[in-house]
């Protein structure tokens, strides 16, 4: 039995910065400060110092901030760091994550059309079902 399933202090939370933390900083601040395990911010950026400032200015508790430079790199970090729950706003970032990690798609204006009340997905990330 996976010990992390029964011991919440071993669970690792992964969060995207842009489009997730930036959309609801108060929520993610409260969540990260009450989270019993590790918190890793995984962001598609190239300026580490700015990422640190942006995370800290939103009062996010974190153990690591990891910058990636390609979409599939997030899935690699999630696997290598043992992230159990990951939240991102881009389906492209979620599609290569192994099934043992729970994922959440965070809704924002970039991925949800409020007028049509529909998610915006590409053929690479969405499949229509009837």
Overview of the molecule:
This protein is α/β, with parallel strands linked by helices. It contains six helices and seven strands. The chain has helices spanning 3-6, 17-21, 25-34, 48-57, 71-81, 91-94; strands spanning 12-15, 38-43, 64-67, 85-88, 102-105, 112-113, 118-119. The strands form two sheets. The protein has a five-stranded parallel beta sheet with strand order 3-2-1-4-5, sandwiched between helices.
Which characteristics define this entry?
130 residues; five-stranded parallel sheet; 6 helices; 7 strands
Helix and strand element order: HEHHEHEHEHEEE
Question: In total, how many domains does the architecture comprise?
Answer: 1
CATH topology: Rossmann fold
- Strand order, sheet with most strands: 3-2-1-4-5
Number of strands: 7
Principal-axes shape call: globular
Could you tell me the mean pLDDT?
92
Radius of gyration: 15 Å
Low-confidence stretches: none
How much helical structure, as a percent, in the residues? 25-40%
What topology emerges from the helices and strands here?
Elements (H helix, E strand, L loop, with lengths): L2 H4 L5 E4 L1 H5 L3 H10 L3 E6 L4 H10 L6 E4 L3 H11 L3 E4 L2 H4 L7 E4 L6 E2 L4 E2 L11
Parallel strand pairs: 1-2, 1-4, 2-3, 4-5
Antiparallel strand pairs: 6-7
